[in-house]
Task: inverse folding
């Protein structure tokens, strides 16, 4: 599967199995998921690989082209509203999310080097999605957030989640 992705533009989707998975030959995946560009591949001695995937957005499953030997699908890339990226209120929310996320990760035992690198997230193309991917919280809320295309609405939703997670610390 990885070689196929590399041969076809280095793009790959990361889709979790649906919570409604039943007993079928092909377990259903969520219809909205993240996708990205493979920027690094490390071949392991046992034949597996570690990859570094740079997230480039979200996509929606349209239909399967094939399910054997792995899933190949027709997808629609979802345009994200980025008009708020220069809005001072949006930037304030990102800064608060970063502070609270660092607290959460430190409490979970994250290394200092990760916390220092997080300072660059504010300049990331999709800072809210990046922060959301680092945290462990309710699966359904994560999928709802992933499906939200308005950056300001997404930031408000995640900020509430991060504040709630901090109250537990």
Result:
């Amino acid at each position: 599967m990885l070689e196929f992705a590399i041969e076809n533009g280095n793009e790959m989707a990361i889709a979790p199995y649906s919570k409604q998975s039943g007993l079928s030959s092909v377990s259903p995946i969520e219809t909205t998921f993240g996708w990205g560009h493979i920027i690094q591949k490390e071949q392991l001695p046992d034949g597996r690989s570690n990859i570094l995937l740079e997230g480039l957005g979200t996509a929606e499953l349209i239909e399967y082209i094939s399910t054997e030997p792995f899933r190949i699908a027709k997808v629609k890339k979802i345009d994200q509203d980025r008009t708020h990226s220069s809005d001072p209120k949006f930037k304030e929310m990102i800064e608060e999310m970063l502070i609270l996320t660092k607290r959460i990760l430190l409490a979970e035992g994250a290394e200092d080097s990760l916390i220092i690198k997080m300072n660059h997230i504010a300049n990331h193309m999709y800072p809210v999605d990046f922060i959301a991917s680092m945290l462990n919280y309710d699966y359904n809320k994560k999928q709802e957030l992933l499906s939200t295309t308005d950056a300001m609405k997404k930031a408000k939703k995640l900020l509430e989640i991060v504040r709630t997670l901090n109250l537990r610390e």
Summary: The radius of gyration is 17 Å. Residues 132 and 158 are 7 Å apart (CA to CA). The first helix runs from residue 2 to 7. The mean pLDDT is 86.
